[in-house]
Amino acid sequence: MGELFPPQCGQADVPEPVPLSEERIAEIAKALAHPARIKILQQFLECQPHIAREIVAEFDLAQSTISEHLRLLREADLLTATRDGPRTWYCMRRAVLNQFAEAIHELADTSVLSDVG
Question: Is 18 exposed, middle or buried (0-12, 13-18, 19+ CB in 10 A)?
Answer without folding.
Answer: exposed
